[in-house]
Amino acid sequence: MEILEVSAPGKIILHGEHSVMYGKTALAVSLGVRSTVVLRQQEPTGCPVVHVIFPNIDLDELLPLKPIAEIFPGEPVRVDHEDYINKINNLLCRIRPNFEELKDTQKNSLRALLYALIGIFGTTNLDITDFTIQLSTDLTVGAGTGSSASFATCLCGVFVKLVQLKTTGEILDFSEDEKKLVSGWAFNCERIMHGAPSGIDNTTCTFGALVSFKKGQVPVLRPSPELRVLLVDSGVTRETSRLTAAVAELRQCYSSAVGHIMEAMDNVALTAEQLLQKLVQPESEEEVHAAYKHLHELWEMNHCLLASLGVSHPALETIRAIAHEHGLACKLTGAGGGGNAIVLVPPHTQETTVTSLKTTLVSRGYKVADTIVGGPGVIINYKTQL
Questions:
Q1: Minimal CA–CA distance to 244: which of 22, 14, 10?
Q2: Which residues belong to any copy of the GHMP kinase N-terminal domain (predicted)?
């Protein structure tokens, strides 16, 4: 049995939350917490199926492959997105009874699966046989950590590598061109999930490291050091649309004041970007210490600027106060109003300090992941089993 295993990171926003909506710079980084999609090719049967196992959204489905293969283009085509989605919807309603009664996350996951399968594998004219596709993830759905983009990147990556396996008989690491292909298809899958994505999530999940972007512009890839962080889940659900609407209303009432806050956030993001570039290849230990000191200050500034826009939350302030007691910088990430906070852990931090902080946070009921940001993007692992 041949097994393809593709994993991709989540993502977080380091700087530029909300201000990015008004033309300011934002920085996103890959998150050490990852999703994995495993594709197992099975022995061919007379009625080939794909077994879909996505336990994090309670999805376990057997879909017949023959009617899916009937709408394979068989050659490379430029996809009309809406027409493509309509064909997939009609197909799913035909091959999966009561498809419309599934939850939105389940329906969109199946749509994305067929979108990637038909669009990537279905244009090659290769034979398709029985396979199982299984998702596992440590990312929380809807928490602002790029769970859907990480999933989409894994899906598209695994089909790109399935094509490679069937055409060359071998599996290599993702090339830059393959990553561009994966990111492009993942963006289209993100359109299924979110309607009008910015492109930042799929770019970060595919390429990893650091991504700088402005609204309406192509995201720019930057090298990044790997920073140790604590990702702290406040346990408070948030509504991104409500928070962005509240910021827009505040801006309308106090355009000058909010404009200055947005300018300050832009300056924070640009300064942080310069510091992170220095940390990629630091010239001395003193430079490392100085850079982390400045990053600490920028994280504190960024959080306070966001709080002044009304997008913090008592739980986030509690997490930040606990981190401050341990001498570490903490800021909200994403839309705010709950969700996650991130704590910067400089390399010179005593491990007893980190342990004490994690213990205190967990005792208060918060979930804590000790991880890195700025690490690798999509990766492949290939193996065979008898």
A1: 22
A2: 125-208
Residue 83: pLDDT band with limits 50, 70, 90: confident
Q: Which residues of 220-254 are buried (b: 16+ CB within 10 A; e: fewer)?
A: ebbebbbbbbbbbbbeeebeeeebbebbeebbeee
- In the chain, CATH 3.30.70.890 sits at 227-373
> Under CATH, to which class is 227-373 assigned?
alpha beta
| CATH classification (class only), 3-223+376-380 | alpha beta
Length of the chain, please? 386
Render the burial of 265-291: b for 16+ CB within 10 Å, e for the rest.
Answer: bbebbebbbebbeebeeeeeeeebeeb
Residue whose pair of structure tokens reads 């041949």 in the numeric block: 2
Closest CA to 361 of 233, 228, 227: 233
Q: Which of 2-16, 132-146, 176-190, 207-221 has the lowest mean pLDDT?
A: 132-146
Nearest to 162 by CA among 131, 121, 122, 195: 121
Q: Which pLDDT does position 385 carry in this prediction?
A: 61
pTM comes to 0.90
The pLDDT tens digits of the residues spanning 135-168 come to: 999 988 777 788 999 999 999 999 999 999 999 9
